[in-house]
Each structure stands twice: as C-alpha cells, then as structure tokens.
Amino acid sequence: MTKILAFAGSNSPVSINHELILNVVGRITEHEIEVLKLRELEIPMYSNAREKIGIPENIKLLYEKILDHQALIISVNEHNRNVSAFFKNILDWLSRIDRKFMEGKKILLMSTSPGQRGGAASLEYCKLQFPRFGGEIVESFSLPQFYENFDAAKGTLSNEVFEMGVVEVVTSFSQLIKE
Q1: pLDDT tens digits, residue range 85-102?
Q2: Which of 76, 93, 99, 162 is deepest in the core (most CB within 10 A)?
Q3: Domain limits of the chain?
Q4: What is the pLDDT of residue 30?
C-alpha cells in the first residue's frame, strides 16, 4: 500500500481545487491517503531576511509529510495565468530546506478553474517546476468550467466525458504508484 499526500495549492476557504482533490481521493481505495488543507498553515511570505530568522515550523511540518509519503496528488489553482502567490510561496520555502524536496515522488497533478482553460497555465508551470524539485509527474488532468462540470452538492463530476477522463487518470496513477 502506497502512502499518498494530497492537497490543493489554494488558500481559499471555498477552494474548488480542494473539492476536486476530495473527489479524486474518494476514488482511490487501494492506497493510504492523507489530505491536507494548506490554507490552515500559517506561512510567512518568503524573503532572504525572513529566512535568516529560520524556516517556519509549518514548512518543516509539510516537508516532513512530503518525505513520509511516496506519492502526491496536487491540484493547483490559477491567478493571472500562473500559480497563486500562496502556492508559489510554499514552493519557495520548501526549496530552501531541500532543493529536491519532491525527490522520488510520483505525482498526479491537477487543476480546475471556472474558466474554459481549467487552470491550464498553472498546470503547465508546475509541469516545468516539479521535475526541478525531483518530482515525477506521472499523470495530469485539467477540469475546465468547474461550476458547469462539477456538482458541488454531490461532490461529483456532472460531465460524462470529464468523468471518464478522471476515471482513466486515477486508474493509471493508482497502477503507476504501486510499490
């Protein structure tokens, strides 16, 4: 059984990327999954001056959790065609502990947004950055027009085509991360 850490890169209390995370992890039964809400972590904005004070305890905690898991499921939000400043800040801090903080981690990378591109720009950013941190993206998925394609009341995808796509991606990811 593989240990998976799952989280959304959003600090929104009503994160649609967190809702997507919950939908996806609910489909995986053969692995052990821990879901984090990064927004609950108090993390200061990175700067050289702040780093001299020391690495924040919540970043150390997150780093240890990443080390303790073999795989990651991450859903990134998008602000102005990029990852959010919140998530970029977390990546910056983690890379100050260890540049290869994702070393050996297989990753299911996802994104969603209310728009037609489904957070595609933030997804592409992460596809370039995560390998630099040692991560291996083995599957990815983007869900466009979240509110038209996701039934928030039920926590399910309402679009049949996207539902089939998620099933395929999750099945593949589950197979690829088996120890």
Answers
A1: 999 999 999 999 999 999
A2: 76
A3: 3-176
A4: 94
Which strands, in side-by-side order, build the sheet including 106-112? Answer: 32-36, 3-8, 71-76, 106-112, 136-143
Q: What pLDDT score was predicted for residue 179?
A: 64
Q: What is the pLDDT of residue 117?
A: 87
Cα angle 36, 40, 46 (rounded to 5 degrees) comes to 105
As a whole number of Å, the CA-based R_g of the chain is 16
For the record, the structure tokens of 58 come out as 């919540």
Chain centroid to CA 16: how far? 12
Q: Residue 118: is its pLDDT beyond 90?
A: no
The topology under which CATH files domain 3-176 is: Rossmann fold (3.40.50)
**What sign has the CA pseudo-torsion 82, 88, 89, 90?**
positive
Per-residue model confidence (pLDDT) at position 81: 85
Tell me which amino acid residue 80 is.
Answer: N
Residue 38 pLDDT: 96
